[in-house]
Model the fold of this input.
Amino acid sequence: MALLKNRLFNISILAGCFLFLFAFSKLYFFKQLNVIDDLELIIGDASKLPASWVGTKNVNKDIPILILAGHADSQGFSGAGTPGEAVDKFGLNPMDPTITDELFWNLKFQRSIVQLGKVKGLNIRSYDPGIRNIEDANDPRTNWSVGKEFARHGGYVIEIHFDSYGDYGVGSGLIPPFFETPNQIDESIARKFGRFPVLFRGGLGAPRRQIRILEIGKLEGLLEKNLRNVKTRQRTIKLVSNEIVQAFLQGINKNTSSNLKRDEDGTSLPAINL
Done:
């Protein structure tokens, strides 16, 4: 009888802890948030790793731009992307159970950046392999293979990512290509989001194929809360995407004004359903 009481007591304690954690996570991630339009505040700290590169190379005004969603072809493998703080630490459900939360948001931003870029007259497009688990990194359908070929023909290729949460991640910033002099678009993005060293982790696979990596920020805290909250999601995606598009424009033409006419919600570009 005493053993049964102890078991029931332990079960009740565990249940109570679970309910508390569940309630806390719901409150933490889904309470109504104040609208924030400060990029630095939303994306969090930039990389503080030493990086001395400066993007000085000129680019053509009609340079082709290719946007890739990081980890679009590596689901189910070790390089599938971060699940994010909400899922991994607080136990919330993933945004899509078939892919990591990082890829879910990478795809959202990929679409938004391309749509906003086209509105602004950029020669911009995206690529999605569609197949989420391609084992061979050199398969011609992978992000890396398509991006490498696009860059070989003079295009600008950038892969969208989110960094790991907590101490596992570094922060926001651009990782430039390995064998190419960083250009003025790289510099413009780095001034907004920060910069990683060229040889980050010994030189990653994408930069070794002339593909830049943009870490938007750690998938945690205010950034992740604003993305998961349906009341602030679209505005947050639009705000960050607009900053990336403006960085493209400023890098292509330094005389391009960033003081654009704002629309009624303050993000200067038309609404997009994501």
